[in-house]
Amino acid sequence: MKELVRIWGLCVIVSMIALSSFAQKVQVVYGTCTYYAPLSQSVDEAKRTALERAKIQALADEFGTNIMQRNVTNVANTQMGSAIDFKSLSLSEVKGEWIETIGEPTYEDIVVKDNMLVVSVKVKGKARRINSANVDLDLRVLRNGTDLKFQSLQFQNGDDIYLYAKSPIDGYMTVYLYVESENMVYCLLPYASSSLGAYRVEHDVPYCFFSKKEACGDKGDVDEYVMTTAKEVEYNDLYIVFSPNEFYKSNMIAGGGNLPRKIPFHDYQEWLSKCRSLDNKMQVVVKSIMIKR
Q1: From CA 274, how far away is CA 186, in angstroms rounded?
Q2: Residue-wise pLDDT tens digits, 152-195
């Protein structure tokens, strides 16, 4: 009995050390960016670009970058950190991933200088080092058609939206739409009538989500979606969450009418942060969509 207690105690200690070691992988990072945008670009679009680049800068400063045989990418080390030529750098080339934004990004005065729109932003967030290559997912947003030739991130009010997806391995997937103007996140996949925690995808099988015609399995479960806006221009973000490990969608409330289930953006971020902290194989792909009235 004493020996059993010793073994149990040792297992608890080992587990605590392992959990502590894993938790240390998530850390707080800071990023800044001053973005010079053409005057033809809207303020909202310039702010989104500046914020994305600030996040990339934070990840590059903390975790470094992979050049990946691209000569036009330039990383110069300075006393202020690494200065990056963003003409070719993307999130796929930094050695870290952004998990959660802490608080609200801070924007300085947006001014026009030398016929350019100048946007400066500071952002704070949680991130972790990428220790292995992500799954090579093939994800494409489609507009008004299920053929790949309809790939687009620019929509008009009333356009249909579809998502093409193919994974080289078996796994689980959820799809959410963040509506910035409402500060709300809607669950698009699994479908509203589904009791599944996440949609099961098989390796090398092409899926076309949000289309009853192209659906795999029970077509009665499929929800089809239309992009709408009351603004001149609106930006939404499509969050595609994938893992080879089973996970479960966030707890949501009814959207009302024909709207999907929904959750406040802050609560969604907390759920996603917890999921990613517990599963280092989980990856999130964000597709930014512009909708014009």
Answers
A1: 19
A2: 999 999 999 999 999 999 999 999 999 988 889 999 999 988 88
State the DSSP H helix or E strand holding residue 262, giving kind and residue range, or none if neither.
Answer: strand 262-264
The tokens of 139 are what? 């994800």
- Look up residue 23 and give its amino acid: A
3-state secondary structure of 287: strand
Q: Answer positive or negative: Cα dihedral of 51, 57, 61, 62.
A: positive
Give 16's contacts (C-beta < 8 A, 6+ positions apart): none
Is the separation of the CB atoms in 103 and 124 below 8 Å?
Answer: yes
Instruction: Respond yes or no on whether the N-terminal peptide bond of residue 190 is cis (omega within 30° of 0).
Output: yes
Q: Output Rg (C-alpha) for the chain, integer angstroms.
A: 21
> What 3-state DSSP class applies to 248?
coil
Contact 126, 91 (CB under 8 A): no
- Global confidence as pTM: 0.74
The identity of residue 187, as a single letter, is C
**CA–CA distance, 259 with 271 (Å, rounded to integer):** 21
CA distance 49 to 42: 11
**pLDDT digit string (tens) for 3-34?**
444 444 444 444 444 443 444 478 999 999 99
